[in-house]
Amino acid sequence: MIPLSGDIPDSKGAICGKIDSNPVVRGTSTLKRGFAHMLKNGVVMDVTNVEQAQIAEEAGAVSVMVLDKLPSDVRKAGGVARTASIRIIEEIMDNVTIPVMAKCRIGHMYEANVLDETNVDMIDESEVLTPADEYHHIWKWDFTTPFVNGARSLGEALRRVEEGAAMIRTKGEPGTGNVAEAIYHIKKVNEELRTIKSMYDSDDKQELVKMAREFKVSYDLVEETAKIGRLPVVNFAAGGIATPADAAYLMSLGCDGIFVGSGIFKAEDAQERARAVVLATTFWEEPDKVKEAQKMIDERQSLLGLDVKNLDLKMQERGSTV
Amino acid sequence: MSKIQIGILAVQGDVTENFLATMASMSELGIDGTVVQVKTIEQISELDGLIIPGGESTVIGQMSLVNGGLKKIKEKIESGMPVFGICAGMIFLSKNSKDKVVGKVEQPLLDVLDVKIERNSFGRQKDSFEAKISMEPVGISSFNGVFIRAPSVSETGSDVEILAKFNEKIVAVKQGNILATAFHPELTRDISLHKSFVKLVDNLN
């Protein structure tokens, strides 16, 4: 089981309060990580307006992620990509019943504050937007709202967890419609997990200490992760997912769920495709159901896609080394 | 007496946590049985009890409708199979549900638990909270309630017993073979509620 504890002492995000006269506590690890647990086996869809958010909800999305532009448009537009308009985020929050997430720039403490005040259900500190701080991510323990972060290796994932991320998404290359990078990174994380698990199982503390130094995280976190043999928080796949078969494949690699960015609303058959990706994610273990889902979409209407080798901008590299 | 089989509806949500809590309950009670993750009609048909976990009720409902699971679950509950719905599971069991902000939303429901539900009753994720609650009718005097974007029960039918309230809001109910909570016992280390559900299944077997 994924542990729900992991609070650091005196985390500012955990607040004691009252509802009427009854004492309550908010923003604990149990509540933040627990929220991510409720998303498991679901699909989170990128949206830019109310209409798309409603299509996503009707199709069975477990949550929506609000952006100003879909990742493939961010890529085309160039310039600086920032958090979405608050007015649009609020409009979406008022019109769907499922949780609403929004992205802020890496390291941009005050964009995060604004989203926290807006009351979004989860904040994505995302490499799809232009990083605001090349050297630091946000210290997420200071927030009551949970965070999700991207990672393309185990070390990167654990650094984010140590900063207070309640959920991880293994990165792909956003806005490409090319699932290759997402597959590469989840396989890499799985391989690294197997390595430290076997160190733990053979009680080789010296090697685990070495890994902690390499990952640049505390020994305790490496040991805890090695013991359970998986990431200590919920882990979704993201980046370049365009078809039901893409989603099902990533589920089979051990992901807890799926983020779809441009893959749905940049395709010409968004409504059908949204539903099909949810079906394939739910029933990934049943090949006939995945086929049925794949049949709902028309390949001629898929996002054309980009070869990652030819890209000038690799979003996945943002914030990876710190 | 035959071995009991309890299923965890594995469409979407925190399935593993309920699976482990139910396994632990069985072993602590010394009850011989199995716990399985279920999705298909065939798997559901075999069950003596079912837990519908937390997650998103809209997703669990829609995806259960797709493969006929919804109809089968309803049939089984109506013929007496005990069921335990948690958060999204509680909403899915209900006859009527509307969102606190958005209002009425079309979503497939099992229509077996005679209550009206208010979804997201305590607010959004930032308002999610942990608090002590008490469920005297099932002999649990203090329980750590983990409420995550939790619903509450706004009206109950005459056969519905109220197990717990938080302030004035109803957060746990029982109606015959149906048990439902707005909070998440599977996210705590306290398995007392899962144990009382396992006992309910075992007694009927």
Q: Largest interface, and how many residues on either side?
A: A-B, 48 and 46 residues
What is the general shape of chain B? Answer: globular
CATH class of chain A: Alpha Beta
CATH homolog superfamily of chain B:
Class I glutamine amidotransferase (GATase) domain
The CATH architecture of chain A can be named as Alpha-Beta Barrel
Percent helix of chain A: 40-55%
How many helix segments of chain A? 13
Counting structural domains of chain A, the number is 1
Strand runs of chain A, count: 10
Structural class of chain A: alpha/beta
Helix content of chain B: 25-40%
Q: How many domains comprise the coordinates of chain B? A: 1
Q: What is the CATH superfamily label of chain A?
A: Aldolase class I
First-last Cα distance of chain B: 7 Å
On the 0 to 100 scale, the average pLDDT of chain A is: 94
Q: Radius of gyration of chain A, rounded? A: 19 Å
β-strand amount of chain B: 35-45%
Q: How can the largest sheet of chain B be summarized?
A: 7 strands, mixed
Give the tally of β-strands of chain B.
13
Secondary-structure map with pairings?
The complex is a heterodimer of chains A (322) and B (205).
Chain A: E1 15-19, E2 22-26, H1 29-37, E3 43-47, H2 50-59, E4 63-66, H3 71-77, H4 86-93, E5 100-105, H5 109-118, E6 122-126, E7 147-151, H6 154-162, E8 167-170, H7 180-201, H8 205-215, H9 219-228, E9 234-237, H10 244-252, E10 257-260, H11 262-265, H12 270-282, H13 287-296
Parallel strand pairs in A: 3-4, 3-10, 4-5, 5-6, 6-7, 7-8, 8-9, 9-10
Antiparallel strand pairs in A: 1-2
Helix pairs in contact in A: 2-12, 7-9, 8-9, 10-12, 12-13
Chain B: E1 4-9, H1 15-29, E2 33-38, H2 41-45, E3 49-52, H3 57-66, H4 69-78, E4 83-86, H5 88-93, E5 94-99, E6 103-104, E7 113-119, E8 129-135, E9 140-147, E10 152-156, E11 161-166, E12 169-175, E13 178-181, H6 192-204
Parallel strand pairs in B: 1-2, 1-3, 3-4, 4-13, 5-7
Antiparallel strand pairs in B: 5-6, 7-10, 8-9, 11-12, 12-13
Helix pairs in contact in B: 1-6
